Amino acid sequence: MIIAGEYSFNGGKEYIQKHYSHLLTEICEVIAAVNASQHKTKESKEARRGYQMLYSPSSLNQAVNKKIHTL
């Protein structure tokens, strides 16, 4: 997966970078290690979307959790 965007509320990102930079680096490595295309398993039920395949949030969460626990 890639990190497509970041959102920082009240300087939260800067705080995390300053005090927990080692954990932020670890999280970025875990996200990069997950292959998101394997988790496109949820079928859209909307006709206007063409019944396309979507990313399954629960499957992505499980993959990220598995990678975190293996580090």
Distance between the termini: 17 Å
Instruction: Please give the count of helices.
Output: 3
Give me the strand/helix succession.
HHEEH
Q: What shape does the CA trace take?
A: flat
Q: Portion of residues in helices?
A: 40-55%
The averaged pLDDT comes out at 90
Which ranges are low-confidence, i.e. pLDDT below 50, for 5 or more consecutive residues? none
**Strand order of the biggest β-sheet:** 1-2
Task: Sketch the major β-sheet.
Answer: 2 strands, antiparallel
Beta-strand content bin: 5-15%
**What's the alpha carbon Rg, rounded to whole Å?**
15 Å
Number of strands: 2
Output the structural class.
Answer: mainly alpha
Assembly context of the chains: single chain
Topology:
Elements: H1 12-19, H2 21-33, E1 42-43, E2 53-54, H3 57-70
Antiparallel strand pairs: 1-2
Kindly summarize this structure in a few lines.
The protein has 71 residues and is mainly alpha-helical. It has three helices and two strands.
